[in-house]
Amino acid sequence: MTQQTDTGRPLLRSRRDVIAGAIFLVIAAAFAWQATSYDMGRMIRMGPGFIPIVLAIMLGALAIGVMLVRSDPGEHETGRPIPWRGIALVSFALILFGAYGRVLGLVPVVFLATLVTALASRRNSIIAAFGIAVALSALCYVIFKLGLGVVLPTIGPVFGPFEIL
Amino acid sequence: MELLSNLALGFDTALTLQNVLWCFVGVLVGTLVGVLPGIGPTATIALLLPITFSFSPVTALIMLSGIYYGAQYGGSTTAILINLPGESSSAVTAIDGYQMARNGRAGPALATAALGSFFAGSVATLILAIAAPPLARVALNFGAAEYFSLLVLGLLVSISLAHGSVIKALAMIVLGLLLGTVGQDVTSGTARFTMGFQELYGGINFVSLAVGMFGVAEIFRNLEVETNREVGVSQVKNLWLSREDFRRIAGPVLRGTGLGSVLGILPGGGHVLASFASYSAEKRLSKKPQEFGRGAIEGVAGPESANNAAAQTSFIPLLTLGIPAHPVMALIIGAFILQGITPGPNVMTEQPALFWGIIASMWIGNLLLVVLNLPLIGLWVKMLTIPYRVLFPAIVIFASIGCYSIDNNPFDVYAIVVFGILGYVLIRLGCEPAPLLLGFVLGPLLEENLRRAMIISKGDPTVFLTRPLSASLLALGLACIVIALLPSIRRKRDEVFVEED
């Protein structure tokens, strides 16, 4: 980028703009490539591909704009660390819930997912995480099973004779 | 006296035991999420949408609206007591409210916020009741071309009011529009961008997108730097205002209500702008501007009234045109659609009980909020002592259960992960998620009206410029962009959004 760099920070900012632009550009290209396989139609009767193509081209143009135009100073806060552990654990807990909710049942899956999620915060010890998981399992049972009657079984079929619907 | 009979119908609907009960639940949950920093009404409403499926439409919408304006009340409590805005719109309240609390005047500050909000909420609801019908009648004459232009205007206005880079906001809108095209095309039945996933035929799940972008991405943000929040005031005493206090807040409350009612109609977060505008107006009008920032009661009364008035009038574009003013309203549109109702000018004529029931419930809700907030303040102070490390697992779990139970489909839960990470990356790069959500919700409407307008005009794209109403709407949208890009306005806008003092 060709910006004035009187301190180190403007450089960092411009790099962020380039990354943001690149993400938009990749998404635009993916949509455009896929949209070419749909019928374009004509102006009077637009096909399903017409609007996605137009939007993808607009996004591509804006992506280049994002890369080139200098964004406001002060828009980004400087280097807060990326919480890799938190992102990984929370994502894992969500996938766990989606994949095993039905077989495990509401209470066990809430317990497990909460345990994993709680450990995303460095301030939670293992024991604290257990405590939160127990409390939240009980709370969710009362709210979602007794109160709202969700379809998930209380204890899932994987527990065999202990299954509770 | 058509208004009176309509309101009678509304109260008839809203005052059934079931509706009052769910209105109460709505404002209670709203206050709760407003009080707790880190959870906003956007994520909460997204989470509770699936639960409202089993309700009748009017009950569902009364509750969801209650969450929204309830959160505006709750946000001020947190702002005053711990100097952390529970909601973005109460950021200004924190400036003087927290100083009042430190001076031992937490009680009067909370009372001012509650009473100002109650007054503003009631007046703005009346404005909504008066202004909505004529606007809806105008909108009934809109053709496809006008609708298209109106939607474009709505999207463009949202940029000029959001902060941050204009070009990034534009890109986010277009990205939202693109995500909105995923799924089966209504006219031809072609499956678009489904990548072979059967689950995507009905489009990307709106709840997963909203929960991911606003709930989970926010959790990732908060995990970056974990801080302890401290409750500066553990006990609130003396909630009564003195005669002198009443004299001082009367003007700010009235002006705040007026400003908020007008700015609330604007798309794109008018309630945040309203509270900032009211604060700077009061500071300028005050005989003792040096008191601002050191605990001036006017600095609490004005902005609090303004943001509550705006919360109420932001329902105007939704109920009359079917256009959401901000992400929360976009979710409420989602709720309408899930209930099988297309929001727009027709709602008022076809479902008068629903339309007026929602409006009437707002008075009931505002009254319930005063009762909830003043005598029960001790309870809310207690809530603030719950640490975030306990809170966020609950948010993640509620999000999972909520999304899962829409269709009992694991795919919707996986989608939260995708949008949570995408949202987090984009927010870190300085792109706000709100325009994306607006684009996503309005995208299908935009496409439908564009295609219809093209068929009607026999493929002539100039139709948007030759029809006067459509052309002026587009011109207005263009003006918004130009204004947002002007350097002097940009500086002003930045100033407005930077906390003073």
Any overview of this molecule?
The complex is a heterodimer of chains A (about 160) and B (about 500). With about 160 residues, chain A is mainly α. Chain A has helices at about 10-35, 50-70, 85-105, 105-120, 125-145. With about 500 residues, chain B is mostly helical. Chain B has one domain (about 15-350, about 360-495). Chain B has 23 helices and two strands. Chain B has helices at about 1-15, 15-35, 40-50, 55-80, 90-100, 105-140, 145-160, 165-180, 205-225, 245-265, 270-285, 300-315, 315-320, 325-340, 345-350, 350-375, 375-385, 390-405, 410-430, 435-455, 465, 470-485, 485-495; strands at about 185, 190. A two-stranded antiparallel sheet of chain B has the order 1-2. The N and C termini of chain B lie far apart (about 50 Å). Mean pLDDT of chain B is about 85; it is low at about 495-500. At the A-B interface, helix 1, helix 2, helix 3, helix 4 and helix 5 of A face helix 8, helix 9, helix 18, helix 19 and helix 20 of B.
Q: Secondary structure elements and their pairing?
A:
The complex is a heterodimer of chains A (165) and B (501).
Chain A: H1 9-35, H2 50-68, H3 84-104, H4 106-118, H5 126-147
Helix pairs in contact in A: 1-2, 3-4, 4-5
Chain B: H1 2-14, H2 17-35, H3 41-48, H4 57-82, H5 91-102, H6 106-140, H7 144-161, H8 166-180, E1 183-184, E2 191-192, H9 206-224, H10 243-265, H11 270-285, H12 298-313, H13 315-321, H14 327-338, H15 346-350, H16 352-373, H17 377-383, H18 388-407, H19 410-428, H20 433-456, H21 463-466, H22 468-485, H23 487-497
Antiparallel strand pairs in B: 1-2
Domain DUF1468 (chain A): 19-153
InterPro entries (chain A): DUF1468
Transmembrane segments (chain A): 18-38, 50-69, 89-119, 126-144
